[in-house]
């Protein structure tokens, strides 16, 4: 009898579970959509950026005679696909990667912008290559609205200037600088990349920056789409330079084992050691200018303490592409109001209120740089404005098993000394899905 | 919030009443039958929903997984049959063979170590005064209550590494530094799979308490007459344990061993959180996750699951037989 009662309890639980699942599946929410002609824009940017953009948007929208509502949503890159399937989409969505834009286009949910925006004027007012980042099948679908920059080298400003080190103009000069730091008894590179289950992205950022420098924009794009294999001489040249940085004796604080073992968050701290910097150079993205990654007193006196410069081009004065990321505005409705709102987003002014209070960087070269909250942010913005091409993080656009899989893992294994670079590159190439 | 609470409440209520209604209907149906059949068939009617639930939630996914393991691009428009390709590609890859080797090391080492340590603690704690025994057991059982990810955070601080000259946050490197040594990147040391063993220690830490509780209960259940008889016959303490206690708790030992063994075969969180399989610490549970969620390669993930299933089935059969034999002997 006891057993029988237990069975009943079990079955009851199972039925309850089944019902709970059905209830969850049906319980979607039906907010947004058609609400009285107002244009809705979704974005996942920080609240301070959203507020700033809304403020400027309100002013511009009133002039244009439309109404625009900006909604902050979480994880729009995943959300947007489910919402498209549910038929519940905003008029404009700010998507964080070209790959996401492409998949939205593939789902037939986006409208091309070539005839909506004055692309000729944007070409000259935005950072070089900004429009290319939003191209899908030779049509413009994504408009770069905010950006971040990854091709940066941070250094301890005071000590660096005291030592009288020059700012390198080319990759060779960067190597010379590292040699000079070493001969002065210092350790040149702060290179740490442990990042939990995402360990490896620091190394893939390095590789992307170097591939675009040695191969140029076209080779970089071919490499991202696998028209250029990982075993190509250009990729090997890039890897060789990175090997020189990472695995040369005494080049990295803590030596080889420290690279993969130390959390990436710790990289900047030794630069501000009492007395002499523990290491001098750190290649990281603009997001690193934050209280999580810098010592408190450095963050409080950012402009005096932290120096930043662009990751140098291959040849001094030559092609100077920049690696970065950003949000691309995608038009998901062909109403006139939505098109008007899209044009309002395509102005430098839209970021006026967002820039002073956040890490927002405008992709417009004519943006009033005095609005940036610090000299550091201004320098970072200028690195992008002075570049010859702004290129999105390539590993994000590769298939996940490569871009967030084998590329990370093989780089990590190589830097940890478990495999050699040729094997690592061959393994990555082999892992590219056939299709 | 209110809406969600209400939904949850209604769901539970609807679920329970639906189950009640179902049994009421089944009962009615059986009562409609002639009395002879009613008695014979009623148990079956009552068991039916449970079996149905198992069929839907266990057997159907298992069969589906088996089918998927012979397909590629599952869930994509390009879904197609590939025969044994998923299996051959996996088994031909060097990385996957290392993954299998690591998993094998876990299987070899962890269950045996858990049983031995658990037994040791159980036997030794048994000789302490009650208060001491309780204190020791509580301490050793405590890790069992921590989630795997929580444990990983704790052990992350044990194995943490900072470059030489930096303040060492990690416990082990703190000790090394105190003796003037250079810090060691523990989880990166993969000579002889050393780092895999460091990860296994975490699972030991979590499971010894479980083994101890079961084994301790079993030890206490050994009739003291048998011990006395052995002692009167001149057995020393070692002989009492090995010849008298152990044979009497053999059933519990086997159960603990197999429970831990099956747990080890499925282990995932520890490796995922600590290294994500980097530095040659990958194991089959983590590889499954990577193939399924990261690589979107459901075919390969299914093939891994099938291999795991095939490996677990003999152990399950042994366990069920063992259990039956015990029941029969009782």
From TrEMBL, chain A:
Residues 1-25 form the signal peptide. Gene3D superfamilies: Periplasmic binding protein-like II. Keywords: Signal, Transport. It comes from the Bacteria. PANTHER family: ARABINOSE-BINDING PROTEIN-RELATED, OSMOPROTECTIVE COMPOUNDS-BINDING PROTEIN GGTB. Belongs to the bacterial solute-binding protein 1 family. This is Alpha-glucoside transport system substrate-binding protein. It comes from Nocardioides alpinus. The lineage of its organism: Bacteria, Bacillati, Actinomycetota, Actinomycetes, Propionibacteriales.
UniProtKB/TrEMBL annotation, chain B:
Residues 100-319 form the ABC transmembrane type-1 domain. It is a multi-pass membrane protein. PROSITE patterns: ABC_TM1. One of its GO terms (biological process) is transmembrane transport. One of its GO terms (cellular component) is plasma membrane. It is found in: Cell membrane. Pfam families: BPD_transp_1. Signal peptide: none annotated. Keywords: Cell membrane, Membrane, Transmembrane, Transmembrane helix, Transport. The chain crosses the membrane at residues 6-26, 46-67, 104-126, 138-158, 197-219, 240-265, 300-320. PANTHER family: BLL4140 PROTEIN, DIACETYLCHITOBIOSE UPTAKE SYSTEM PERMEASE PROTEIN DASB. Belongs to the binding-protein-dependent transport system permease family. This is Alpha-glucoside transport system permease protein.
């Amino acid at each position: 009898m006891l057993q029988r009662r237990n069975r009943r309890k079990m079955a009851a639980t199972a039925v309850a579970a089944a019902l709970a699942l059905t209830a969850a599946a049906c319980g979607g929410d039906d907010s947004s959509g058609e609400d009285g002609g107002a244009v809705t824009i979704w974005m996942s940017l920080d609240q301070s950026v959203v507020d700033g953009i809304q403020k400027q948007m309100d002013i511009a929208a009133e002039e244009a005679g439309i109404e625009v509502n900006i909604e902050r949503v979480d994880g729009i890159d995943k959300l947007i696909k489910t919402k498209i399937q549910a038929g519940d989409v905003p008029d404009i969505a700010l998507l964080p990667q070209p790959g996401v834009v492409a998949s939205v286009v593939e789902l037939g949910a986006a409208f091309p912008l070539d005839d909506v925006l004055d692309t000729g004027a944007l070409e000259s007012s935005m950072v070089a290559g900004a429009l290319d980042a939003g191209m899908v099948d030779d049509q413009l679908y994504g408009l770069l609205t905010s950006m971040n920059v990854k091709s940066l080298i941070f250094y301890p400003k005071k000590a660096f200037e005291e030592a009288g080190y020059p700012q390198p103009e080319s990759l060779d000069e960067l190597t010379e600088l590292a040699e000079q730091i070493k001969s002065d008894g210092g350790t040149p590179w702060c290179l740490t990349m442990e990042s939990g289950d995402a360990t490896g992205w620091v190394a893939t950022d390095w590789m992307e920056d170097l591939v675009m420098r040695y191969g140029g924009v076209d080779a970089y794009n071919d490499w991202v789409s696998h028209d250029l294999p990982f075993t190509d001489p250009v990729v090997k040249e890039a890897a060789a330079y990175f090997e020189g940085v990472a695995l040369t004796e005494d080049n990295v604080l803590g030596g080889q084992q420290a690279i993969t073992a130390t959390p990436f968050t710790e990289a900047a701290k030794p630069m501000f050691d009492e007395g002499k910097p523990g290491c001098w150079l750190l290649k990281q993205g603009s997001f690193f200018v934050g209280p999580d990654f810098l010592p408190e007193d450095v963050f409080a006196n950012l402009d005096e303490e932290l120096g930043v410069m662009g990751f140098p081009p291959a040849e001094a004065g030559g092609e100077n592409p920049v690696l970065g990321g950003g949000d691309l505005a995608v038009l998901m409705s062909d109403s006139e109001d939505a098109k008007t709102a899209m044009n309002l987003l395509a102005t430098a002014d839209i970021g006026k209120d967002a820039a002073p209070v956040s890490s927002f960087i405008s992709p417009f070269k004519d943006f009033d740089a005095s609005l940036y909250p610090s000299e550091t942010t201004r320098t970072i913005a200028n690195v992008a404005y002075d570049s010859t091409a702004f290129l999105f993080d390539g590993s994000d656009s590769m298939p996940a098993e490569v871009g967030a899989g084998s590329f990370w893992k093989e780089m990590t294994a190589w830097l940890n000394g478990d495999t050699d670079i040729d094997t690592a590159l061959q393994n990555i190439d082999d892992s590219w899905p056939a299709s | 919030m209110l809406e969600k609470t209400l939904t949850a409440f209604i769901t539970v209520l609807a679920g329970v009443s639906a189950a009640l209604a179902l049994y009421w209907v089944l009962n009615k149906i059986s009562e409609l039958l002639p009395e002879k059949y009613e008695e014979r068939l009623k148990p079956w009617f009552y068991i039916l929903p449970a079996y149905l639930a198992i069929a839907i939630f266990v057997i159907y996914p298992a069969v589906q997984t088996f089918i998927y393991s012979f397909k590629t691009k599952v869930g994509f428009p390009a879904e197609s049959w590939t025969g044994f390709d998923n299996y051959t590609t996996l088994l031909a890859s060097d990385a996957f063979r290392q993954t299998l080797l690591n998993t094998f090391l876990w299987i070899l080492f962890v269950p045996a170590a858990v049983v031995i340590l658990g037994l040791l603690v159980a036997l030794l704690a048994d000789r302490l005064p009650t208060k001491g025994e309780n204190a020791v057991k509580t301490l050793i059982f405590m890790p069992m209550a921590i989630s795997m990810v929580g444990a990983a955070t704790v052990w992350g601080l044990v194995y943490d590494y900072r470059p030489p000259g930096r303040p060492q946050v990690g416990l082990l490197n703190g000790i090394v530094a105190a003796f003037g040594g250079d810090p060691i990147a523990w989880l990166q040391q993969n000579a002889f799979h050393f780092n895999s063993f460091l990860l296994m220690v975490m699972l030991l830490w979590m499971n010894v308490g479980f083994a101890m509780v079961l084994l301790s209960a079993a030890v206490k259940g050994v009739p003291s007459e048998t011990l006395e008889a052995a002692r009167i016959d001149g057995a020393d303490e070692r002989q009492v344990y090995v010849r008298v206690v152990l044979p009497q708790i053999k059933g519990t030992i086997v159960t603990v061993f197999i429970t831990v063994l099956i747990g080890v075969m499925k282990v995932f969180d520890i490796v995922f959180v600590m290294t994500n399989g980097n530095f040659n610490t990958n194991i089959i549970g983590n590889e499954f996750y990577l193939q399924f969620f990261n690589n979107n390669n459901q075919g390969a993930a299914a093939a891994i699951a099938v291999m795991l299933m095939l490996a677990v089935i003999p152990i399950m059969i042994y366990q069920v037989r063992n259990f039956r034999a015990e029941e029969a002997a009782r």
